[in-house]
Design brief:
6 helices; two-stranded antiparallel ribbon; 86 residues
């Protein structure tokens, strides 16, 4: 999957280097179909994604959850929500 292109669908000015670093960091998770996507309908999965954002970005739990909720809202039309893009 071309993660940079997918990210740019939602964030046109995304930094290519940051996306590549994120892809490298998540390579093991992204290698498995069942862990590569975030299930927006599963509250535990959404919380897991928010917790990762909180830790990775050093933001509050509220800020992380708002960010995840915002991205999931933007991605509503996508059936498969890539963990890297979310």
């Amino acid at each position: 999957m071309d993660y940079l292109a997918k990210v740019k669908e939602y964030q046109p000015d995304a930094d290519e280097e940051r996306v590549k670093r994120l892809e490298q960091r998540l390579r093991l998770v992204l290698s498995k179909r069942d862990t590569a996507a975030v299930s927006a309908g599963d509250p535990k999965e959404v919380e897991r994604a928010a917790a990762w954002v909180q830790k990775a970005c050093s933001v509050s739990a509220e800020a992380a959850r708002e960010a995840i909720d915002g991205v999931l809202e933007q991605m509503k039309g996508d059936r498969m929500k890539s963990r890297l893009v979310v």
